[in-house]
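hey m, so remember when u said the tokens were messed up on ur end? i reran from scratch. heres the input so u can diff it against urs
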Amino acid sequence: MASIIISSDSSLTAARIAEKIVKKNGFSVVNRDILPEAAQKYNVDEAQLKKALDRPAGIFGMPAKLKKQCMTYIQAVALEKLLPDNIVCYGLGAHLYAKGVSHFFKVRVLTRPEQLIKELHPAGTAPENKAEKIIAKHEKARNRWSRDVFKQDESNAGLYDLVISLNQIEEDEAVKMILETASLRQFEPMTYSINCVKEFLMAAQVKAKLVERFPDCRVRVDGENTVIHIQALKRNAKKYSAVAKEAARTVPGVKHVEVHILTDFIGQAVESNR
């Protein structure tokens, strides 16, 4: 059966839906409980991983470079946990980096406004005009978060196989809809879709080796080929290419590595003006 990836405008709603799915079908859960493992594996503060999931980059958020590192580490561990079947995953942004896997059933659950206000507002209630502003601010922050690292707007319905609003649908009914749809034949794991997860995982593991030194690196795995794109000054191209190849080959399963150097035009201009 498909693995289910839940996205929601409310972390509490996502957790409740996931818990009910587990009780009905015995799925295993992948959520923020993996953060201690990610922190230990990549030698990073667990609190920083939590910040990366909750705050956009910027002056009042966290540095963009650190955020990219943390999200790469989370992604690598999350994808490893998503390799088996019958998983329900939430709270890790997986709907943004597990794209293109046919047996990952991605669902967006929208909370009732009054329920969302209880979660967002200290008093638990707010006047209607103020409530709308609070929810709009929350949505704006979440969309900014998804664009920061993944260049995607998580409110875009096109990212999901199913979008459910709880305005008139009870949570138990939503769970039933999710399980019925996830059981459709087109969401069954196949050799191709399983290999896609393995390739995404290997790419994330390679990127985790590179991201501290090359925060804007891009990695793609296609069969036995690992393709890396990094930015560098022309005079550093050969050196950095060798560094990237050496790091990538420390990841189990990596065979052929290609490194493509993208000219760092900003760095080049700064250097030429010195």
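this time it looks ok to me. The chain has two domains: 3-187, 213-272. if urs says something different then somethings off w ur setup not the seq
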